[in-house]
Amino acid sequence: MADLFEDKSQDWDSRPIPQLISEGVGEVLLHTIPWDPAMEIMDFGAGTGLITSHVAPGVRRVWAVDVSASMLEQLEAKDALEGRVETVCRDILAEPLARRFDGVVSAMAMHHVEDTERLLERFFEHLVPGGFVALADLDAEDGSFHPEGTQGVYHHGFDRESLARQLVDAGFVDPQFHTAVTLQKEERAYPVFVVTATKPNDG
Ligand SMILES: C[S@@+](CC[C@H](N)C(=O)[O-])C[C@H]1O[C@@H](n2cnc3c(N)ncnc32)[C@H](O)[C@@H]1O
């Protein structure tokens, strides 16, 4: 799989949009999830670790999963994450991990995966009973968020009702949406949601 983030990885953390998303999503995560120091968490599409950095201090370990080796290299260079994070450069849709997690967090990665249904099923399979997802992405937009021709973008955001239905179809219960931040780009507003949902205890 080509590393579509090789160039972007070099200055990702200093870009205003990832910073705003990280702040907004981090705030929602910290206030909506009952974090526990024993938790093992997967950050799907972890990139350089902006979201991992919010989560790692409160849990046992974060498994930072991404298909971009260059983004994960930036994450691995962060001293504050040393000993708290395992990086995994793998497409878990093709090759699942042989472990389960207490939660899956993700920011702005779902729109890079064509088959959302399969992705949500994969998240479900990777969770312990009672585990949670907390997934951030753009609300449905008109396709203007990414510059024209950007490779690897399969969804122009997500319709909340449809995504809630897909989560329930995958086996999750109680999908709840929060607006984490509204990005402004060239006079347009792009809200970013975090949806939380739970795998039932008997799931
Ligand atoms: C927009 S970046 C977001 C990075 C990070 N979550 C953040 O908020 O800064 C999307 C990330 O998803 C990753 N990604 C795309 N497709 C993926 C897949 N199938 N499996 C894992 N990661 C994927 C990309 O490599 C990239 O690092």
Describe this structure in words.
This protein is an alpha/beta fold. It has five helices and seven strands; from the N terminus they run H-E-H-E-H-E-E-H-E-H-E-E. The chain has a seven-stranded mixed sheet.
Q: Could you give a short description of this structure?
A:
With 203 residues, the protein is of the alpha/beta class.
Q: In this structure, how is the largest beta sheet organized? A: 7 strands, mixed
What's the total helix number?
5
How many β-strand runs? Answer: 7
C-alpha Rg, in Å? 16 Å
Descriptive labels:
single chain; globular; binds S-adenosylmethionine; alpha/beta; 7-stranded mixed β-sheet; 5 helices; 203 residues
List strands and helices in order, with pairings.
Elements: H1 16-32, E1 40-44, H2 50-55, E2 61-66, H3 69-76, E3 85-89, E4 101-107, H4 116-125, E5 127-138, H5 160-169, E6 173-185, E7 188-198
Parallel strand pairs: 1-2, 1-4, 2-3, 4-5
Antiparallel strand pairs: 5-7, 6-7
Bound molecules: S-adenosylmethionine.
S-adenosylmethionine (SAM) binds at residues 5, 18, 21-22, 44-47, 50-51, 65-68, 71, 91, 107-109, 112-113.
